[in-house]
Hints:
By secondary structure, the protein is of the alpha+beta class.
Amino acid sequence: MSEYPSDWKLIPIREIITESRINPELDDPSKRISVRLHCEGVEKRSERATDQAGATRYYKRLAGQFIYGKQNLHKGAVGIVPEELDGFCSSQDIPAFDITPSVDPNWFLHLFRQRNFYESLENIATGTGSKRIQPSELGEKEIAVPPLPEQKKIAEILSGIDQQIANQQNKASKWLHLHQGILDLLMTQGTRGRAVVDTDAGKVPDNWKIGRVEDFFALGRGRVISIPYIKDHPGPYPVFSSQSKNNGEMGRMDTYDFDGDYFTWTTDGAYAGSVFARSGKFNCTNVCGTGRAKSPDEADTKFAAYFLQRVAKGHVSYVGNPKLMNNTFAEIPFALPPIDEQSEINEIIDSARRNIDLIESQILSLSNLKKSVSSDLLSGRKRVSV
């Protein structure tokens, strides 16, 4: 940090934190903790987690201690041990530190949660192959520290925004649960009160047509489109890829391959089997399959996307790289209601989805606010009244 207010002190981190080495605990996997990446905090370690190489000793951690992952500090693997995990233990690759009383622990944590700060720590990682940031290296880094009352006020403001984000995320989680329940109900009961029968496509109303995906939809595939190509050809038309974040969009370019109503799905990788409804002019990469109604008067691609979101992942092959290729996708059992009932179902599900989209938009706005406010307050560009 090259510039900071005159009443802030430039201090090496070693003068702020002291590594804690409380006697090793007995090896009790049920009382181990870890830190999640990207500043998501401290958690009880999953039973599925495996030990890192060399992690042979486990040390007791106390509430209020600062901990970080040696291998992943530059990815935001930091946290403060919460009260409910007091007395749990972590490995030697997740050291813990007592923080001097002259520094507010939450202010210190917010400093480390700035992306530009934690990513800057990569240049002090040492070792070959899997690099680590050792406490001795971290300790030499200097940070600008405001007076304690200002630290507390900054932490209060940033924690307040974090709480608002958490509240909205909790609300989104409840709506997603409700959305899934509505989806399951409509895809098995419909909207007309018809008798339900068992079919290859599951329990559905007795007047729904039963077949395979390929009976109602013509399937295709995207093409290879590289990120450099997108950057060299900027434009308004979205390019969808294998990811599921941001509705699967990886960028925008100046041409399009598809125009109309489609569904797409991820054919390869961790998100294989993710299905989306698409409409208008767009592109998709070679790890996306595409589907278009053979008879638009009979089949609606948005309905198809909703139906397949429930079942497609069950047809993914997890031998090696997860895959759901066109030939397998084509054989997925499919149930098709009358076209007007498809529209009714779409509208009900869309209504729930709009609430989720609104909440997610609010979360994004709060996250952007947090980044801006955090950068200003932790650098001293803006001061707070105390």
